[in-house]
Write a structure and sequence with these properties.
alpha/beta, 124 residues, 5 strands, Rossmann fold, 41% helix
Length: 124
Amino acid sequence: MTEQAKTRILVIDDEESIRYAVDAGLDFLGDYDVHFAEDGAKGIEGLKSLSPDLVLVDLVLPSISGMEILEAIRKDPDIKRPDRVVLMTGHANPFNDQHLDDVGVDKILSKPFKLEQLKNALFD
């Protein structure tokens, strides 16, 4: 019997508390292969080297912004498009549904968030 590969998730956020909360939440929700990047540049590296299935990316990051990461996902041939991209923001949601689609975002997750909101953003 072949073992099914774990869902690979990349979390790109500069706030340690958010990375910790996402890690704890995902650990509670199931068995995932979770990776973290604390800034945009490391996030781009992770996208290229890991080819994650799911990506959570903060809108405001040091070095390379969340919007620049979204553009790289859409345009960089070295980055495989993840199955789902979730944009996290601590600000009011500045996007309408059409704009989200245009920038390649599947869901918005407003910070702070609850476990159920994280689950819905990633898996519904």
